[in-house]
Amino acid sequence: MTSRNPYEVLGVPRDATVEDIKKAYRKLALEHHPDRNPGNRDSEERFKEITLAYEILSDPGKRARFDRYGTAEGVPDLSEFFGGFGLDDAIRAFMENFGFGGFRQGGGVTPRGDDIEMRVELELAEAALGASREIRVRRIEPCRDCGGTGADASAGYRTCDSCSGHGRVRTSRRTLLGTFTTVDSCGACRGSGRVAVSECRSCRGTGSRAADRTISVEIPAGISEGHVLRLRGQGNQPGGTLPGDLSVLVAGIDYAPFRRTGDDLVFDVVLSFPEAALGTKIEIPLPGGGRRELEIPPGTQPGDVIPIRGEGMGRLRGRGRGDLRVVVGVFVPRKLTGEEKKLLKSLAGSRNFRHGG
Ligand SMILES: [Zn+2]
Ligand SMILES: [Zn+2]
Q1: Taking a C-beta distance cutoff of 8 angstroms, is the pair 193, 226 a contact?
Q2: Cα separation, 144 vs 249, whole angstroms
Q3: S-S: 12 plus which of 16, 73, 113, 159, CB 3.0-4.6 Å?
Q4: pLDDT per residue over 194-217, tens digit each?
Q5: Prediction pTM value
Q6: Which one of the ligands is nearest to 147 CA?
Q7: Is residue 89 included in any domain, yes or no?
Q8: What residues have their beta carbon closer than 5 A to ion ligand 2?
Q9: What is the count of structural domains for the chain?
Q10: SS3 category, 186
Q11: How many whole angstroms from 240 Cα to the centroid of ligand 2?
Q12: C-alpha of residue 107 to centroid of ligand 2, in Å
């Protein structure tokens, strides 16, 4: 859609305040609103662009993300933040930003069903390597028997009284930004201009039904908690509407027994003093499942890190995987028998046992 950065798009400096950003957006959105520029493709594109820029800069999380990833010469494509952000989305976002409920684009855009929001908890292997996750969703779909019209087609139709058969109703609305005259799709006949003489028996005239679906969600390798995966058109779709989206929030990832730092995973091992001094072989778990042997060299110190390249998290924004870092601890005995004390004391005076020796 655009490769400009959102600060440029709104004409605000990098350190602009929330108020400045809102002011700039309001002014530009008004100028380029599709209701003010009917049929003007350039305005539509511009309206989408500024709304998208505002969506990013008005959200502290997204703004921080943009600032972090977007400062390099190659400013990322804005649409990366909202794959496939359309005019409907822009208009909806605009309404939400300024609190105009029920305000629709001139010309009568087909309404959209509600989005469905879900949360998933991921296993480490899914988050580290990526996976297909099947999720169960109960959603509203158009009734199959009447094709979502709610009408019993065999009984015939009559002209809609509400819109006299035009399928559209005109509304003037005063808003903070001035008066907008909008043409909405007629609610009584859902824009068709006619109503059924008798309603569909399967859905009792609603045109909709609930359905349980299993939807496959692609989990990208390297995903983090808080990430939202958006599946376009997989949300609710009552009869006569376009489908909403399905948003899947990654609510948690079970990293145990590892810890995550960026794309790397950390695994802590505790060795006995003789193991650290003499060297040994240990087995460590891998994030994708399974285990592997790891050589501990003689003279390993507490705090030493042994990296296992490419066994960490997948890189969400790049190739390959981070590392698995094995951090070594050394256990000092808390209790000793008389015999053990004697043995240790006999070693304590030895030159190699003294720090700096
Ligand atoms: Zn039906
Ligand atoms: Zn009507």
Answers
A1: no
A2: 30
A3: 16
A4: 888 888 999 998 889 999 999 999
A5: 0.58
A6: 1
A7: yes
A8: 160, 162-163, 186, 188-189
A9: 2
A10: coil
A11: 13
A12: 15
pLDDT reported for residue 329: 97
pLDDT the model gives residue 72 = 35
Residues of the chain with confidence (pLDDT) below 70: 1-3, 69-109, 173-182, 357
Which numbered ligand comes closest to the C-alpha of 157? 2
The CA 185 to ligand 2 mean position distance, Å, reads 8
Torsion-angle region of 236 (φ positive above 0: left; ψ -120 to 50: alpha; else: beta): beta
Residue 246: what pLDDT?
Answer: 96
Distance (Å, rounded) from C-alpha 173 to C-alpha 257?
58
Distance 195 CA to ligand 2 centre (A): 8
pLDDT, position 105: 39
- Residue 60 is classified by DSSP as H
Ligand nearest to the CA of 238: 1
Domain ranges, residue 283: 259-353
> How far, in Å, is the centroid of ligand 1 from the Cα of 165?
21
Q: Which CATH number do you get for residue 338?
A: 2.60.260.20
Nearest-angstrom CA–CA distance, 267 and 256: 9
Spacing, Cα 335 to ligand 1 middle (Å): 78
